[in-house]
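Subgroup meeting minutes
Present: P.N., E.W., G.H.
Scribe: E.W.

1. P.N. recapped why we're keeping a running log of single-chain structure predictions: easier to compare across weeks, and new members can see raw inputs and outputs side by side.
2. G.H. added today's entry (72 aa).
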Amino acid sequence: MSDDKRAKLRTLLNYWIEHNKEHGQEFREWASKASGFGETEASEEILAAAQEMAKVNESLSRALKRLERKEL
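Output recorded in log:
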């Protein structure tokens, strides 16, 4: 992979990780709101989505670490 493509991928991975963190936080906030107006099942599903988002970020973080190791 060229240095330019590697740098682009590193930038994208960092962006995706941060973007997903923001979405995960927003999901948790809305899950709490949904629970507050009696939508327990919807709240649980939204929380499940937030947990899946965290798993996605774990994978993206591992990919970023592997990419950075090859740059050394």
